[in-house]
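User: Teach me something about this protein's shape.
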Amino acid sequence: MDVKTAAALRRLRIISIAEAISFLALLIFGSLLSRISSINLLMPLGLLHGALVVVYLVFLADVWNKAKWPMSRVWLFLLWAVLPTGGFFGDRMIRREESAGVIAARARKEGVVNA
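Assistant: First, the predicted structure itself:
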Protein backbone atom coordinates (compact mmCIF):
# COMPACT_ATOMS: atom_id res chain seq x y z
CA MET A 1 0.00 0.00 0.00
CA ASP A 2 1.46 3.32 -1.00
CA VAL A 3 1.54 6.43 1.17
CA LYS A 4 -1.31 8.22 -0.63
CA THR A 5 -3.65 5.26 -0.26
CA ALA A 6 -2.77 4.89 3.42
CA ALA A 7 -3.40 8.60 3.99
CA ALA A 8 -6.76 8.41 2.20
CA LEU A 9 -7.77 5.40 4.31
CA ARG A 10 -6.76 7.21 7.49
CA ARG A 11 -8.80 10.28 6.51
CA LEU A 12 -11.85 8.12 5.79
CA ARG A 13 -11.41 6.32 9.09
CA ILE A 14 -11.27 9.56 11.06
CA ILE A 15 -14.25 11.12 9.29
CA SER A 16 -16.32 7.95 9.67
CA ILE A 17 -15.91 8.12 13.44
CA ALA A 18 -16.72 11.83 13.50
CA GLU A 19 -19.78 11.28 11.31
CA ALA A 20 -21.05 8.47 13.53
CA ILE A 21 -20.59 10.55 16.68
CA SER A 22 -22.34 13.55 15.12
CA PHE A 23 -25.24 11.32 14.01
CA LEU A 24 -25.63 9.91 17.51
CA ALA A 25 -25.40 13.40 19.02
CA LEU A 26 -28.06 14.61 16.61
CA LEU A 27 -30.37 11.74 17.49
CA ILE A 28 -29.79 11.71 21.23
CA PHE A 29 -29.03 15.28 22.27
CA GLY A 30 -30.75 17.18 19.50
CA SER A 31 -34.07 15.40 19.53
CA LEU A 32 -34.13 14.69 23.25
CA LEU A 33 -33.28 18.20 24.38
CA SER A 34 -35.74 19.77 21.96
CA ARG A 35 -38.52 17.62 23.41
CA ILE A 36 -37.83 18.04 27.13
CA SER A 37 -36.50 21.61 27.30
CA SER A 38 -36.42 24.88 25.44
CA ILE A 39 -32.88 24.19 24.20
CA ASN A 40 -32.99 23.53 20.47
CA LEU A 41 -29.80 21.95 19.17
CA LEU A 42 -31.34 20.37 16.07
CA MET A 43 -30.23 23.10 13.66
CA PRO A 44 -26.54 23.36 14.67
CA LEU A 45 -26.13 19.60 15.12
CA GLY A 46 -27.93 18.97 11.84
CA LEU A 47 -25.65 21.39 10.00
CA LEU A 48 -22.57 19.82 11.56
CA HIS A 49 -23.72 16.33 10.70
CA GLY A 50 -24.60 17.34 7.14
CA ALA A 51 -21.18 18.88 6.60
CA LEU A 52 -19.49 15.76 7.96
CA VAL A 53 -21.55 13.55 5.64
CA VAL A 54 -20.46 15.60 2.63
CA VAL A 55 -16.80 15.32 3.70
CA TYR A 56 -17.34 11.58 4.31
CA LEU A 57 -18.63 11.14 0.76
CA VAL A 58 -15.68 13.07 -0.70
CA PHE A 59 -13.19 10.98 1.29
CA LEU A 60 -15.00 7.77 0.33
CA ALA A 61 -14.71 8.70 -3.35
CA ASP A 62 -11.01 9.42 -2.82
CA VAL A 63 -10.43 6.02 -1.21
CA TRP A 64 -12.45 4.31 -3.94
CA ASN A 65 -10.18 5.93 -6.52
CA LYS A 66 -6.87 5.34 -4.76
CA ALA A 67 -7.43 1.94 -3.15
CA LYS A 68 -9.38 0.56 -6.15
CA TRP A 69 -12.14 -0.76 -3.92
CA PRO A 70 -14.88 -2.85 -5.52
CA MET A 71 -18.27 -1.16 -5.83
CA SER A 72 -19.76 -3.56 -3.27
CA ARG A 73 -17.47 -2.16 -0.57
CA VAL A 74 -18.33 1.42 -1.53
CA TRP A 75 -22.05 0.57 -1.26
CA LEU A 76 -21.40 -0.96 2.15
CA PHE A 77 -19.75 2.26 3.34
CA LEU A 78 -22.65 4.27 1.91
CA LEU A 79 -25.05 2.06 3.86
CA TRP A 80 -23.01 2.58 7.01
CA ALA A 81 -23.25 6.35 6.47
CA VAL A 82 -27.03 6.21 7.00
CA LEU A 83 -26.89 3.97 10.07
CA PRO A 84 -26.35 5.75 13.40
CA THR A 85 -23.39 3.57 14.44
CA GLY A 86 -22.25 2.57 10.96
CA GLY A 87 -19.15 4.72 11.03
CA PHE A 88 -17.72 2.60 13.83
CA PHE A 89 -18.03 -0.50 11.62
CA GLY A 90 -16.28 1.37 8.80
CA ASP A 91 -13.49 2.36 11.17
CA ARG A 92 -13.03 -1.24 12.20
CA MET A 93 -12.89 -2.48 8.61
CA ILE A 94 -10.37 0.19 7.60
CA ARG A 95 -8.15 -0.55 10.61
CA ARG A 96 -8.03 -4.20 9.55
CA GLU A 97 -7.16 -3.22 5.99
CA GLU A 98 -4.44 -0.84 7.17
CA SER A 99 -2.86 -3.49 9.39
CA ALA A 100 -2.99 -6.04 6.57
CA GLY A 101 -1.29 -3.51 4.27
CA VAL A 102 1.43 -2.85 6.82
CA ILE A 103 2.05 -6.58 7.25
CA ALA A 104 2.20 -7.09 3.47
CA ALA A 105 4.59 -4.16 3.04
CA ARG A 106 6.91 -5.55 5.71
CA ALA A 107 6.82 -8.97 4.07
CA ARG A 108 7.70 -7.47 0.67
CA LYS A 109 10.51 -5.44 2.24
CA GLU A 110 11.98 -8.53 3.89
CA GLY A 111 11.69 -10.48 0.64
CA VAL A 112 9.12 -12.97 1.88
CA VAL A 113 6.65 -12.17 -0.90
CA ASN A 114 7.69 -11.38 -4.47
CA ALA A 115 4.96 -8.80 -5.15
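Now, about its shape. Residues 3-110 form one domain. The chain has four helices and no strands. If you'd like, I can walk through any region in more detail.
User: That's plenty for now, thanks!
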